[in-house]
Amino acid sequence: MDNKDNTHIVKYRTYLFVLITLIVFTFISVAITGIQLGKLAVVGALVLASFKSSLVLWYFMHLKYENQFLRLMVGLVLFVFIAVLIVTFFDYSFQ
Amino acid sequence: MSTVAVHRDDVGSKIGMWLFIFTELLLFGGLFIVYAVYRYKNPVAFHLAGEELDVTVGTLNTVILLISSATVAMSISAVQYGNKRATLSYLLITILLALFFMINKYFEWSGKFGHGMYPGSEKLTELGQGEVLFFGLYFAMTGLHALHIIIGVTILLIMLVRIMNNKINKTYFVQLENSGLYWHLVDIIWIFLFPLFYLIS
Amino acid sequence: MSNSHNQESSYLDYKGRFKGIFAWIFSTDHKRIALLYLYSIATFFIVGALLGLAMKLELIAPGKTIMEAKTYNGVFTLHGITMIFLIVIPGLPAVFGNFLLPIMIGAKDVSFPRLNLLSWWVYIFGAAVAISSQFLGNGPPDTGWTFYAPYSFRTTTNMLPAVLGAFILGFSSILTGLNFIVTIHRMRAPGMSWLKMPLFPWALYGTAWIQLLATPIVGITLLMIVAERTLHIGFFDPTLGGDPVLYQHLFWIYSHPAVYIMILPAMGVISEILPTFARKPIFGYKAIVVSTLLIAFIGYFVWGHHMFTAGMSGTAQFAFSFLTFLVAIPSAIKVFNWIATLYKGSIQLKTPFYWAVSFLFVFMIGGLSGLVLGSLATNVHVHDTAFVVAHFHFIVFGGVGYAFFAALHYWFPKIYGKMYDEGWANTGWVIFFMGFLILYLPMFVLGIMGMPRRYFDYVDEFSRLNIVSSLGAILMIFGLIVIILNLVRSARYGKTAMANPWGGPTLEWQISSPPALENFNEIPVVSKDPYDFSNVKLG
Lengths: 95, 201, 539
Ligand SMILES: [Cu+2]
Prior knowledge:
Chain B has helices at about 10-40, 45-50, 55-80, 85-115, 120-125, 130-165, 175-200. Chain B has about 200 residues and is mainly α. By secondary structure, chain C is an all-alpha fold.
């Protein structure tokens, strides 16, 4: 078995940039809730959370450097989860 | 015991860890489905109940976890550079940050308990049904998350020892990578818990 | 090739660090673990079958026959829990998957042998916890295997051990699935591309993904029941604002895909056996692969057909009914492929073939009755009646059970290096098959007449068919005894088996029977298609 694709080393600086972005977006999402956006506030918070977690997946968890298969599978799992949520709401939003 | 020579397959172990992470995501996913349904049914109550939580503590804990996620990633770069001291320091910082997170969590929960707010308490049942569900989910989801932090810290401590013994080194560090993956998972779950509980008021 | 190993080096005789039973329960060899599962599952199966027989004896006449209503509730719950969680869900993957997956893809073991052993231990631990629910203080659980809320957290019986046991068993299932996925990705022999992989490994691959992606949902749901009982959180408690129907959603999000955890490997077994006994490549290899993956995928979104009468929205009912019809298509594709495989084949009539063909027969009846349940209008009529029980047993017992016996006879020579007795095996099959039909066919009719499931009593007009059905149960148990005794005897005293007694084309038939500890002397290099019969020699 080849153990080759472990050789990629991510620079400390990359992680630092990502971390700063993540913290900035945390404060943005806190700030957004200060404004009265009504229903949009939830959507906004979730969009920001998804963005933040994709950064974690992509850089911290090295998906960027992993093989295609893993990326595909992560996408599949998220798709399945979201689809299950939607199908569940076929029931609740039409009651 | 078989005598099959233990073959080393780092890529395989990493795939295995990812698969395990998928199951963890879906475990929390079940709770997120419950949350979504009850929030949909009780929007006002969730809104009001969310105001009971302290945004400052929540934000602080978010930042703590984000930093710890970055440091555990850096420890992997350090081990690849062959820098044992840096690896240990980054890992130690991660563990300390996790402990900070737990201390915050402890004060937050004990504050709630002090006000008579805990699952099944009289005060909680006197509130509306939506509030009961909100706090029920709050305790269940952050509780399960805290349990994962405890498991994560234990794993990271084991890694710390293994690095000190040179069991994990420049040429063999897949265990550290997998522990890091687990730690990032804990972080990702919190990234969603934070807005859903603290920021919906 | 069969002569290149002497008997000493077979995995059965191998002497390692431990002696006696410890050489088995601490072995990380995938073949020994497979047999650990086989023996544990067989033990539980005998218990589960006797519980089923007890129910049929209770139902042989109206009113109380051999047990009280409360006992009956406990018996059908335990029958369900053992059969579902201890036997059919782990069944084929844990026994035949473990034994054959590495061999069929040309590997020496699974990717994580120690994790594999851990899965078995977790399985035994979960089984012990689940079974303890029968003997602890407050009486056996009486909710049925579905643990429906709110009753599951209101009943005073021992729910906690039953629910926790199911949770632990789920964990074991996840670990096995994880192991198989990594094994298939990383351990295939050189030259074995994805489309050169036999269909049983393919089926295990699809199954493993369902195990991985569906089990956590039921895991957390069961934990919520635990939390509900101990902490009164209100997840599913209507008095606290919770929604019991949401429990049903979460439960079936797992438990419908679980049906495919059971049936996909069964389909895989059939796809192995039919080509061998028709001496013809499987018809439509790619179509079967694609339909396996489609079933795994679509099967994830059809759970609501278990809840048509639970008060779901009309839109959801429509959506679930539609999706259910959709998932029937890939199953039907497989049936057509199997039949086309037999067409113009040179068929050898051996026991595994009989089992496989009777599988086709009962599976089609089960599948077609599933369409009756999948359509909204007819579902409302037969919901929660004996019709559902009949359909379910045709699919799960008729599917997994038949495939299990097919697999057991097919790979028996490989596993033990001995031949079973053909005459007794066929006799057992005939008795079992007759008993099965006499037992379950009347239940379709009873269901349409309106006999509800899960009652220990019924009105007099149902009595004639119930007598028939109960007699069928006795016959079927008799057949089972013949089958099991024959296999147990043959494992000891059977004639020595050759490496390839059936003329099978896949890799497991090219190594000795029983296999050596590490399966292959040298990792094979694969160049031909899995069902290529050229150069396949008998013996
Ligand atoms: Cu179903």
